[in-house]
Specification:
Elements (H helix, E strand, L loop, with lengths): L8 E5 L16 E4 L5 H11 L15 E4 L2 H7 L1 H19 L4 E4 L11 H17 L8 H11 L13 E6 L7 E6 L15 H19 L23 E6 L1 H12 L3 E6 L7 H12 L8 E4 L8 E3 L5 E3 L16 E2 L1 H4 L1 H15 L8
Parallel strand pairs: 1-2, 1-3, 3-4, 7-8, 7-9
Antiparallel strand pairs: 5-6, 10-11, 10-12
Helix pairs in contact: 1-3, 2-3, 5-6
């Protein structure tokens, strides 16, 4: 498994990417999804969740790769704004991870499909721009992008026809923000007017090609045949499953509620617990001493004590500002709270449960 000084792969995406990819062999990727997330939001969540491994606090292992992309944001803002934001995200993330870590544009996996011809064309034009500006020292995963369209068009080559063209003003490259005109000719009929939600086979082919190319380019050891099924694996335990809750005080209350309901529950954590390097290492040490079985379930809340994000005047997430203490409370928060963060605890719990239900080896794998 990646970690402990070995390179890691972090995927920052919206809901158009699988939420979990259990592996039977090889390393797995860390997947962070924000529903309908903008590239700025993905950048902010990455900075918040991995701050212990970013400048000036620490660093990711050399050779690590971060993939960034959001189909919902491409649909909402169009290709010109999307590419501007993508370049800014590359620069912002790259400045915090330092030397030896690459930031790569994510190849789409249309879990929920693409509902309009304009979005399909925007995605094709995005790929064309990426391939045009790809330079030495940076890959945009060209083989994976070619494979994506082969899967989507069922092997039919993508062609162009004469007709009206669209001219975009796009950056000259990843590091050169100077705009210049880029002409896009219309695409021919083999390009679908919409793309239905990807089947399990389509998702497996796209992800397998992407992980294979990442392994080849960066010398990684990702599992190139990840499990993309969504049916829970049969429970092979003896029926005496335990629930292990890891997190802050609210996870302790969940432990009490589960115990009261008759579950064999264990709490690992303490009030004020935050997912950081030291606290996660301590939690791992305690989990190692519990002697977890194949049917045990571990629920890890990575968002403990991070729910109080605020919004700025544009409605984008920002740190809540602690201004003063008020009797009977801890702090007064001076900005509007960000609604997505209130759902994070529930979402991370559901994802954790899905991972463990689908894992034939249970807790011993994680």
């Amino acid at each position: 498994m990646a970690g402990e000084g070995r390179p890691v792969v972090i995927i920052l995406a919206n809901q158009n990417f699988p939420e979990v990819l259990p592996t039977a062999g090889g390393d797995c990727a860390f997947i962070v999804r924000v529903e309908d997330g903008t590239l700025q939001e993905l950048d902010a969540v990455f900075s918040d969740r991995f701050r212990a491994f970013l400048k000036p606090h620490g660093s990711l292992p050399p050779g690590s790769v971060i993939l960034v992309g959001s189909l919902s944001y491409l649909r909402a803002c169009g290709i010109q704004e999307y590419i501007d934001s993508l370049v800014r995200a590359f620069v912002s993330i790259g400045a915090r991870v330092g030397q030896g870590v690459d930031v790569v544009p994510l190849v789409a996996v249309p879990v929920h499909g693409l509902e309009s011809a304009s979005l399909v064309r925007s995605l094709m034009d995005l790929d064309a721009w990426l391939l045009a500006v790809q330079g030495a020292g940076r890959t945009v995963l060209p083989k994976t992008r070619e494979n994506f369209w082969a899967v989507i068009t069922d092997g039919t080559p993508v062609t162009r026809e004469r007709g009206d063209s669209i001219t975009y003003m796009l950056p000259a490259g990843f590091r050169n923000h100077r705009k210049h005109p880029v002409v896009s000719d219309p695409y021919d009929s083999p390009v679908p007017a919409s793309i239905p939600p990807a089947t399990e086979m389509a998702k497996k082919r796209i992800i397998s090609a992407m992980f294979t190319e990442l392994n080849d380019v960066y010398g990684l050891s990702l599992d190139v045949i990840p499990d993309v099924t969504r049916d829970p694996s049969p429970n092979t335990s003896n029926g005496q499953n335990r629930l292990v809750f890891v997190g802050a005080s609210h996870m302790g209350r969940l432990t009490e509620a589960a115990t009261a309901a008759g579950a064999d529950s264990i709490y690992v954590g303490y009030p004020g617990w935050v997912a950081a390097k030291d606290s996660l290492s301590e939690a791992a040490r305690k989990l190692g001493g519990i002697n977890l079985g194949a049917g045990d379930v571990v629920i890890l809340d990575l968002f403990s004590n991070s729910a109080f994000m605020g919004t700025d005047d544009a409605g984008l997430p920002c740190r809540a500002i602690k201004t003063a203490r008020i009797p009977g409370t801890t702090f007064w928060v001076s900005c509007r709270l960000h609604p997505k963060r209130f759902l994070s605890k529930l979402l991370v719990t559901l994802v954790a449960l899905a991972v463990w239900r689908r894992s034939p080896m249970g807790a011993k794998r994680y």
